[in-house]
Amino acid sequence: MTPVLPFDVSAAKAQVLQRDILDRLVAQVPRGRLTGWYYTPVALRFSDHIAWDVCIYDCMEEFSAFEDAPARLVEMERRLLKRADVVFTGGQSLFDVKRSLHRSVFPFPSSVDVGHFKQARSPGDDPADQAGIPHPRVGYFGAIDERLDVDLVAQTARAMQDVHFVMIGPVVKIDPANLPQNHNLHWLGTKSYDDLPDYLRHWKAGWMPFALNAATRYINPTKTPAFLAAGLPVVSTAIVDVVRSYGAAGLVQIVDDEDITATLRQVLAQPQNPLLAKIDARLADMSWTQTWAAMSGHVERAYATKNVLPFRAKAGVCSTGCAGPGRLFSVPNPANNNAVSYRSE
User: Fold this and answer.
1) Running DSSP on this structure, what letter comes out for residue 121?
2) Nearest Cα to Cα of residue 172 among 97, 257, 61, 93
3) CA-closest candidate to residue 211, choices 151, 275, 299, 125
4) In what order do the strands lie in the sheet containing 54-59?
5) If you average pLDDT over residues 194-204, what whole number do you get?
6) For 58-62, 278-282, 317-321, which range has the lowest pLDDT when averaged over its residues?
7) CA 57 and chain centroid, separation
8) Neighbours of 216 (CB within 10 A)
9) What is d(CA 23, CA 189) in angstroms, rounded to the nearest whole number?
10) Which among 18, 40, 165, 274 is least surrounded, fewest beta carbons within 10 Å?
11) How far apart are CA 94 and CA 250, in angstroms?
């Protein structure tokens, strides 16, 4: 559900309204196991009163590093970490930061729907708003915000006047008027996920011109494996997780301001991506289905751990065959009708 609030509502009133919406939603759901899945600590503002059976913090960003991040965000994340039963991180760099803050932290770098993006390897019609753009094309898709190095984008477009750069995605938190303009720069706006392969199949390469700043220090871009699944060679600035996961394996070309033009020229000169077999082998174990199966296992273990009954065996009370301290015995758990083991004292 997405809450729809009055346009001119105050922040305080918005929290009250969202809390009410959430309460009514929870009340309508048949109660089995109530799971709270958080992507941002800010959601605690309207949900901190809910008694979740399992609480999960799926941390995809280092939010405190973002421009205009709420001042209380670090404190709210500390509260969420205290409540969470399981913490997932969207990459290895985030895991390195969060692992000391919680007892159950697990890294899950971006997965990919290979079948969806692999459609881009087959012929198809060019979307209408892209059909008139000359070739060769280098493309980007994703949020266009402070993480994108717009100066690098402008510099590269000026240096490669014969190459056309297609930029797809919503402009967020930056003024669209400040986006660089050139005859070979094409800002096409937001496209649906379903339509992305139609655009990518008509690009010669994908690029990720991210700025190297606090907002990008811990990102693990989902577009990296998507580009690779589409069969496109990829050129990226030195995002730590991209370097670790793909640059070191030779699957992505890592560049800086000085060599991005030469690298793009080299990539564009190739008749086809020579790494497809190596890429497909790498992507074979990166499906969202496999990721969810692993995540679900951690959630189930967290639930089982929370539902272990606190029981201290006393001398002469045990009726399950324990003969003394240190013996294991089982009693039924009324929460799920499963037998749970305990150690006597």
Assistant:
1) G
2) 61
3) 151
4) 35-38, 54-59, 86-89, 105-107
5) 98
6) 317-321
7) 12
8) 24
9) 36
10) 274
11) 23
